[in-house]
């Protein structure tokens, strides 16, 4: 497709893998191409988001096609929505007695909190339950004051989640969508073992994996390929590291 070729050249998008979908030109394209729920488009418009950034144009169709994705794009290029839109579209509304179906892993509490805010804005108007794992929520799960089945999406840092997995207060066997944000940091010394434990706990056979990062050092890329199935790889600009 000539339009896609021109778009990719102009925005420095390198996309590789089998059966790569065309990039989207606007968020509205998602209505016809992927039956995007109307409220999601409304929530984007409310924030004055009309045109996708390049990482969004490429990663959103790949994720909505159910593909594993390795994505590298600079800081500030809109990676949160690039995985947030497909996640909220796929989960759509609260499902009773199932528990976490989406998991977003982030290296710091500050980042986890920012992601939480963005996902909340996206899911407005729908009964989708989003949980950020912190000291308070982890204690409630451990003491069985709150059931994890109340929630659909979990956002956490690695260490806090590993603790909750190990003490049996959180299970991840129903997670269908796993996102590793700032993955370069998640695969660094200190986080690597925790990330491994979390990957092991996501035991669902139909798990979709996505990895987003501002840099893609070759070690991270190698690691990514060991956990993914026929991923689509999207690089915007020049990968560093
Ligand atoms: P990254 O994770 O790549 O560093 P973020 O997801 O944090 O980037 O987004 C950076 C900023 O860009 C945020 O303030 C976000 O609200 C804004 N943004 C994201 N997507 C769009 C868009 N399509 N149009 C306009 N602004 C956007
Ligand atoms: Mg980010």
TrEMBL record:
Originating organism: Nadsonia fulvescens var. elongata DSM 6958
Motif (Q motif): 29-57
Annotated ranges, domain Helicase ATP-binding: 60-234
Protein name: RNA helicase
Cell compartments where the protein resides: Nucleus, Nucleolus
Domain DEAD-box RNA helicase Q, residue spans: 29-57
Protein family: Belongs to the DEAD box helicase family. DDX52/ROK1 subfamily.
């Amino acid at each position: 497709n000539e339009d896609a070729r021109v778009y990719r050249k102009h925005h420095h998008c390198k996309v590789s893998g089998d059966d790569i979908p065309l990039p989207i030109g606007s968020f509205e394209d998602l209505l016809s191409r992927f039956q995007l729920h109307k409220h999601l488009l409304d929530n984007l418009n409310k924030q004055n988001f009309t045109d996708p950034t390049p990482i969004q144009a490429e990663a959103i169709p790949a994720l909505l096609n159910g593909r594993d994705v390795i994505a590298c794009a600079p800081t500030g290029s809109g990676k949160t929505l690039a995985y947030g839109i497909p996640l909220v579209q796929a989960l759509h509304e609260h499902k009773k007695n199932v528990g976490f179906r989406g998991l977003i892993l982030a290296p710091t509490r500050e980042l986890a909190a920012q992601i939480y805010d963005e996902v909340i804005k996206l899911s407005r108007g729908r009964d989708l339950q989003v949980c950020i794992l912190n000291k308070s929520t982890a204690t409630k799960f451990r003491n069985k004051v709150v059931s994890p089945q109340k929630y659909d999406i979990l956002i956490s840092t690695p260490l806090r989640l590993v603790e909750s997995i190990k003490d049996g207060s959180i299970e991840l066997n129903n997670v269908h969508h796993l996102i590793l944000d700032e993955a370069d940091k998640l695969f660094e010394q200190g986080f690597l073992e925790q990330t491994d434990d979390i990957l092991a706990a996501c035991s669902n056979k139909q798990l979709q994996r996505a990895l987003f990062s501002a840099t893609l050092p070759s070690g991270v890329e190698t690691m990514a390929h060991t956990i993914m199935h026929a991923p689509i790889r999207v690089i915007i600009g020049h990968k560093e590291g």
